[in-house]
Amino acid sequence: MNDRILIRPYTPNDADATIEIFLRAIREVSSKDYLPAQIEAWAKVEDRSLWAQRRVSRPGWIAEIDGAPVGFSDLTEDGCLDMMFVHPEFQRLGIASRLLSRVEKEALNLGFTRIYTEASRTARPFFERRGFRVTTRQTIEKRGQSLENFIMEKLYAK
């Protein structure tokens, strides 16, 4: 299956696909780690144009299988892997690993010695298996709900 995964740059036409992947991943995958009220508060995109603008403002990638978007990720100018989500029907196929490899390649090309992310409870084990370590456990507020997540980082030698 891994050889069927294509990682390509994000384009403005990908906005709706990334919104669907984001919402479904939270509602169907992260729901095992968070309460229903927390999921409801987190799984919202209130402004599609702002979402699209954020995605196109930074390096971002789409994972495709047979031409269909199944995951996405991005990297901010300060080395934050801001978003990485995989469609619930395509979990455990190596998509997140391929996306992370692409993010890491970009980070190294840009001269970063560190990348970091704010990982959910759901994502934390994935990042730990790939060499990230928790630096801070935090509680964030989303639409009146408190959600626990983890600032995690991975360091790279120069």
Task: Explain what the structure shows.
With 158 residues, the protein is α+β, with helices and mostly antiparallel strands. The protein is 32% helix and 31% strand. It contains five helices and seven strands; from the N terminus they run βαααβββαβαββ. The strands form two sheets. It has a four-stranded antiparallel sheet with strand order 1-2-3-4, with helices on both faces. A hairpin with a 2-residue loop joins strand 6 and strand 7 (145-155). The longest helix is centred in the middle third of the chain and has 15 residues, at 95-109. The termini are far apart.
Derived from helix and strand composition plus strand pairing, the structural class reads alpha+beta
Helix content: 25-40%
The rough form would be described as: globular
**Largest β sheet strand count, sense and barrel closure:** 4 strands, antiparallel
Q: Strand arrangement, largest sheet?
A: 1-2-3-4
Which percent band covers the strand fraction?
Answer: 25-35%
SSE series: EHHHEEEHEHEE
Individual helix count: 5
Identify low-pLDDT runs: none
For this entry, give a set of tags.
single chain; 158 residues; alpha+beta; four-stranded antiparallel sheet; three-stranded antiparallel sheet; globular
Summary?
The protein has 158 residues and is α+β, with helices and mostly antiparallel strands. 32% of the residues lie in helices and 31% in strands. β6 (133-142) and β7 form a beta hairpin.
Write the topology of this structure.
Layout: E1 5-9, H1 15-28, H2 36-42, H3 48-56, E2 60-65, E3 68-74, E4 84-86, H4 95-109, E5 114-120, H5 124-129, E6 133-142, E7 145-155
Antiparallel strand pairs: 1-2, 2-3, 3-4, 5-7, 6-7
